Amino acid sequence: MGMAKFHVLSNKIKTFFIEEIKNFTKDFINPKLLLLKCNYFFLLSAVVILWPQITIHQKSLGLTEYHTGTIASVISASNIIFPILGGCVGDKVGNYKILMAIFSLISGALAYSFTWIPSAVIEIPASNTSGTLLNSSFEANSSASNSVMKITDEDQLEITFWIYLCVLPLYVIFFSITHIFLDAAVMANTQIADVNYGYQRAWGTMGALVSSYVGGVIVGKTGSFTEIFYISAALQTVSAILMLTVNISFKIPAISLTKKFFQQLFRPEPILLIGVSFFAGMFQGYFETFMYLFLFDLGGSTELLGLTVTVGAPFEFVMTLVTCNLAKSFGYGPFITLGVLLHAVHHFGVCLIENPWWILPLEAVGSASNGFFMTSSMGYITILVQTETIASFLGLFKIIHDGAGRMLGTLIGTELRKYLTHKEILAIWGSIAVATAIIYCSAYYALKKHRSTSNSTEHEPEQEQKGANSKKELSGIDNKACEAEL
Predict the structure, then answer these.
(1) Can you spell out the DSSP letters for 225-259?
(2) Mean pLDDT over the full length of the chain
(3) Which end of the chain, N or C, is more open, meaning fewer C-beta atoms within 10 Å of its C-beta?
(4) Which 3 state secondary structure label does DSSP give 140?
């Protein structure tokens, strides 16, 4: 009997993956969807080619870990304000593709402007050090002769820090709003055309896979960060041109946006999703801010930093595809829970490594976590809100996850660095992730059970029709996934 059940399950899994491959291939050769994929590919490539190298770039200019933590906190704080504003503007404007393209061009210009940030580090022959440099911090160059000294000019360091504090948050703000606009446009298109959102988003993961490794190799071979900023600016420009091809004409401007937004927000499901997104952002805030510096201190190279995304991206790609379809049958809650649990595994694993190359298998776990959590969350949003308010809800999600959550995680982690090591702090965040997964899963199934019990006690046909009308009013879409959740 046991073997029979195993064979049945095995055949179901085999059938699922065969169907998944067929559907993915059919979607891939659909010319109407090609431009959506290209938009994701170039936009994500533009940011990921430089993102793993950003903290190392800061260090090369003389900035300290405290400066890095402060800049990351400001970025997260800005993500509390601007994404929701961008989302609301998008919903109010309706057809916002020109605005989206302009924001992408501004992001490209800001990527180029990184090359103008002055370095606070100067190199001089050791024999030339004089009393005028006594207030500077000295660091011997790792050359065999030790004849060159790297000196951080404290006065210039302040200037460098403040310029970086202006440029990087602005870059993230414009890129984030552009990404929100594109996500909302693609999600609306997939609703209208009844196609798989994950199949389109997965090509952004493919772009990240290629560009991250290329960026690491370029920095390693040239010893300079200038080239990756040029390439990022060029990719952002190409992305802006492609965005003009996105069809958003069917998305009419929202009317009474505030009322609709809050009507759909203050329900148990959205509130629960917002809560778990906040904690997920906290876990990632510290990790993504300091991970690359941590690996660099362990002896990791710029090529290794680029490989972290390249190795992890295929796992995120697969999990993105699988999650979109399995969530329709099993609900989004289990995959959100699994994503949070894998965050914990990721954090605990990093606590144990001494060789920086062990980060690669752990990044596969981290990318699978992101594939489960982000894809599930985005899919959940599409069945919880109406098409006309999707951009606003995506903005709110970014505020909670990328803004408030990451800011608090980074701030707490930066302060804890005064007393604890990176590994000890990661262990703390891993423990909180386990607790968060348990609480969310319990609340999710309790809510689902309560809803199921309530629906079974309704009188027919009047109450049943009322519930159907309510569901239609809240979701605004015809989606089988909605039946699985609500």
Answers:
(1) SHHHHHHHHHHHHHHHHHHTT---TT-PPPSSHHH
(2) 75
(3) N
(4) strand
Distance of alpha carbon 107 from alpha carbon 236, whole angstroms: 7
Give SS3 for 479: coil
In angstroms, the Cα distances linking 376 to 90, 181, 221, 279, 451 are 23, 19, 38, 16, 20
- Compute the distance between CA of residue 354 and CA of residue 10 in angstroms, rounded to an integer: 39
Torsion sign (Cα): 450, 451, 456, 457? positive
Give the integer Cα–Cα distance in Å for 227 and 236: 14
Tokens for 247? 């069809």
Minimum mean pLDDT range among 90-99, 308-317, 393-402, 472-481: 472-481
Give the number of other CB atoms < 10 A from CB of residue 148: 14
Give the tens place of pLDDT for each residue, 136-176: 443 444 444 456 677 888 889 999 999 999 999 999 889 88
What's the sign of the alpha-carbon dihedral 330, 16, 202, 71? positive
Tokens of 52: 């793993």
Instruction: Report how many helices (DSSP H) and strands (DSSP E) the chain contains, helices first.
Output: 18, 3
Burial degree of 412 (CB within 10 A; 0-12, 13-18, 19+): middle
Question: Which amino acid, 332?
Answer: Y
* Count of Cβ atoms closer than 10 Å to residue 119 Cβ: 16
211 Cβ partners below 8 Å, 6+ apart? 44, 45, 46, 48, 49, 235
Most distant pair of Cα atoms in the chain: their distance: 92
* Selection from 227-236, 259-268, 302-311 with the highest mean pLDDT: 227-236
- Identity of the residue numbered 280: A
Q: What is the mean pLDDT of residues 441-453?
A: 78
Say what the pLDDT of residue 473 is: 39
For 14, phi then psi, to 5°, come to -60, -45
Using DSSP's 3-state secondary structure scheme, residue 215 falls into helix
Its sign, for the CA torsion 292, 293, 296, 298, is negative
Dump pLDDT digits (tens) for 96-142: 788 889 999 999 999 999 999 999 888 777 655 544 443 444 344 44
Split at pLDDT 50, 70, 90, the class of 250 is low
Closest Cα to residue 213, out of 291, 304, 292, 289? 304
Report the b/e string of 446-468 with b at 16+ CB within 10 A: eebeeeeeeeeeeeeeeeeeeee
